[in-house]
Amino acid sequence: MKVAFTTSGSDFSAPLESRFGRAPKFLIYDLDGESFEVIDNQQNLNAAQGAGIQSAETIARSGAKALVSGHCGPNAFRVLAAAGIKVYNTNAPTVAEALEKFKAGKLEETAAADVEGHW
Amino acid sequence: MILAIASGKGGTGKTTLAVNLAHAFGRPLQLLDCDVEEPNGQLFLPGDALVEEIVTIPVPQVDESLCDSCGECGRFCAYHAIVSFGAKALVFAEMCHGCGGCAKVCPQKAIREIPKRIGVVEKRKSGDIVLLTGRLDVGQAMAPPLIRAVKECLNQNMPAILDAPPGTSCPVIVTIRGADFVLLVTEPTPFGLHDLKLAVDMVRELRIPFGVVVNRVGSGDDRVHVYCRRENVPILAEIPDDRRIAEAYSRGNLIVEALPEYRDLFADLAKKLLKAGNGGGG
């Protein structure tokens, strides 16, 4: 299974980005193969609107079935839910710590968007 | 003649100019308040709202029993207003520009368009002036379709003044497109000049004859005047920085009524505009 993390960097030591739609990058980690890829999200970082929707689409296309981020807005949540992607919010400072918590089952699945659009 | 009043910077005096100029023409005319996010022309031209017309835009509605999640609609939409990938299409109506493209490209014919209210056009009469006001509903983001609806009410046989929103983005373009002449209102400040330059670039791009009105002259410096001289842009009127004008405005009074000494200023401008409109000058 693949898990997506929002980040501003390119490896596990990088900070976990608190925003989803306008996260600079997504780190997609494959739990089974223990490998990862980084997807650039620059285009949505600068989008006038629809960043959350487009980012959710990117996550869905990456094949990830879970998203770990700081926060998730309503439009993004609708798309993620429709695509069957589970959302986990955490304030873990780095991708590595967020991954550790995820693996340990310490993150709780979010049932709804936790912030307004354009927060 | 259709005259549009625009500005780059907000708060330079577009509405002040529009309502006073409408009065100064001294003949029946239409004033279209196209600043649909914050229309305020009616504060200066009171009159009962005669007609209120609801404006809608078409937004997609997906028949989920027909949708096979092919994703064509989402790939077509430039605004991410409809999304579909491996799941039934999801509609984000607040982002929809109402183009109808998703319904056209859907191979399953699963999308039909339904009307979604975005605001109203109010029509009222104040003396000789017919005031058409576009009013966007709170929470709506799509000003251009409402502005187009206001402009569709325009009677071509009667002169019209269009009060544009500030800025140089889509709502302004929609407003001034098709106008015979554009008046750009600015103030003699660094910010005023910065945004005037953007506005000048915009009207030049649209190839509409234009002139400048400098408001609050005496409050800043001469940088706007220097720029206009250098660029050969005619300054058609200068409104002085007079506290009494601001006071009249704050009470919802017309300058031409509250301060008669300014009547000539607006009347002269009206004359210049009629000349420019007839001769195609600018």
How is this structure best summarized?
The complex is a heterodimer of chains A (119) and B (282). With 119 residues, chain A is α/β, with parallel strands linked by helices. Chain A has helices at residues 42-45, 51-62, 74-82, 95-103; strands at residues 2-7, 25-30, 35-40, 66-69, 86-89.
Structural class of chain A: alpha/beta
> Into which percentage range does the β-strand content of chain A fall?
15-25%
Q: Helix segment count of chain A?
A: 4
Number of domains of chain B: 2
Shape of chain A: globular
- Which quaternary structure do these chains form? heterodimer
N-C termini distance of chain A: 30 Å
Provide tags for this entry.
heterodimer, A: about 120 residues, alpha/beta, Nucleotidyltransferase, domain 5, 4 helices, about 30% helix, globular, B: about 280 residues, Rossmann fold, Alpha-Beta Plaits, 10 helices, elongated
What does the secondary structure layout of this molecule look like, with pairings?
The complex is a heterodimer of chains A (119) and B (282).
Chain A lengths: L1 E6 L17 E6 L4 E6 L1 H4 L5 H12 L3 E4 L4 H9 L3 E4 L5 H9 L16
Parallel strand pairs in A: 1-4, 4-5
Antiparallel strand pairs in A: 1-2, 2-3
Chain B lengths: L1 E5 L7 H11 L4 E5 L15 E14 L9 H5 L5 E2 L6 E2 L9 H5 L5 E16 L2 E8 L6 H10 L7 E4 L6 H7 L4 E6 L3 H16 L4 E8 L5 H9 L3 E6 L2 H8 L4 H4 L4 H17 L3
Parallel strand pairs in B: 1-8, 1-9, 2-7, 2-8, 9-10, 10-11
Antiparallel strand pairs in B: 3-6, 4-5, 6-7
Helix pairs in contact in B: 1-10, 4-5
What does this 3D model show about the protein?
The complex is a heterodimer of chains A (119) and B (282). Chain A has 119 residues and is an alpha/beta fold. Chain A has one domain (2-103): Dinitrogenase iron-molybdenum cofactor biosynthesis domain (Nucleotidyltransferase, domain 5, 2-Layer Sandwich). Chain A has helices at 42-45, 51-62, 74-82, 95-103, and strands at 2-7, 25-30, 35-40, 66-69, 86-89. In chain A, strands 3-2-1-4-5 form a five-stranded mixed beta sheet, with helices on both faces. In chain A, strand 2 (25-30) and strand 3 form a beta hairpin. In chain A, helix 2 (51-62) runs parallel beside helix 3. The longest helix of chain A is centred in the middle third of the chain and has 12 residues, at 51-62. The radius of gyration of chain A is 13 Å and the shape is globular. Chain A starts with a strand and ends in a 16-residue tail after the last helix. In chain B, helix 1 packs across helix 10. Chain B is built from ten helices and eleven strands. Helix content of chain B is 33%, strand content 27%. Chain B starts with a strand and ends with a helix. Chain B has two domains: 2-55 and 118-279, Rossmann fold (3-Layer(aba) Sandwich); 57-117, Alpha-Beta Plaits. In chain B, the strands form two sheets. In chain B, strands 3-6-7-2-8-1-9-10-11 form a nine-stranded mixed beta sheet, with helices on both faces. Chain B has a two-stranded antiparallel sheet with strand order 4-5. The longest helix of chain B has 17 residues, at 263-279. In chain B, strand 9, helix 6 (190-205) and strand 10 (210-217) form a beta-alpha-beta unit. Chain B is an alpha/beta fold. Classes of the chains: A alpha/beta (119), B alpha/beta (282).
